[in-house]
Amino acid sequence: MPVNSDVLDTLRKIQALAEHGLGGEREAAQWKLDLLLKRHGLTLDDVLVEREDEKLFGVENEMERDLLIHVVGVVKNIARVTVYKINRSRKKVLVRATPAQMVEIERLYGAYRKALKKGIEDYYQAFLHKNQIFPDADAEGGRELTAAEREQVRRIALLLQGMKKTALPLKALKG
């Protein structure tokens, strides 16, 4: 028979008191826990299994979807992550995890997603410079770079060192 989640939550609280209570609290909580487990036909293992919540995560593309899957795998310590698509949408991914795991998934995915976007922007700028895909004229008018822009130039320069120039096909038209 399925057990109400409120009953399980109550049993978990009583179990915690039976473990960590002081003096008579501990014995009284253990007695109450044993009574309720018997009444509901449960074992302590049934109570200790934490419920999983569900949350929809928005993803903009396949790379973000893959990143989310990797984060879920790391947090849940599993090699194979089950992904649920909602209404055949590839822009929403349903994740099932315990409340504690969900907090960690949200924290890591948010941080890595932001870093991934910044890394892609930097890579794109480095790609443009490596392949000299920009106009000759200085469109900025020679203004002074901000500290953030100088830092971006430094990151792009580092990316350029390891990047190969794209080999282009021969020109179709000469002249």
Commentary on this structure:
This protein has 175 residues and is mainly α. The protein has two domains: 5-48, no CATH class; 53-137 and 145-162, no CATH class. The protein has helices at residues 5-20, 24-40, 44-48, 62-76, 99-130, 147-162, and strands at residues 53-58, 84-86, 89-97. A three-stranded antiparallel beta sheet has the order 1-3-2. Strand 2 and strand 3 form a beta hairpin. The mean pLDDT is 82.
For this entry, give a set of tags.
three-stranded antiparallel beta sheet; 3 strands; 175 residues; 2 domains; mainly alpha; 6 helices
Write the layout of secondary structure elements.
Blueprint: H1 5-20, H2 24-40, H3 44-48, E1 53-58, H4 62-76, E2 84-86, E3 89-97, H5 99-130, H6 147-162
Antiparallel strand pairs: 1-3, 2-3
Helix pairs in contact: 1-2, 4-5, 5-6
Name the poorly predicted regions.
Answer: none
Mean pLDDT score, rounded?
A: 82
Strand order of the largest sheet: 1-3-2
Radius of gyration: 28 Å
The profile of the biggest β sheet is:
3 strands, antiparallel
The number of helical runs is: 6
| Percentage of residues assigned to helices | 55-70%
Query: What overall form do the CA principal axes indicate?
Result: elongated
Number of domains: 2
What series of H and E elements makes up the topology?
A: HHHEHEEHH
Structural class: mainly alpha
Tell how many strands the DSSP assignment holds.
3
Q: What percent of residues are in strands?
A: 5-15%
N/C terminus separation: 82 Å
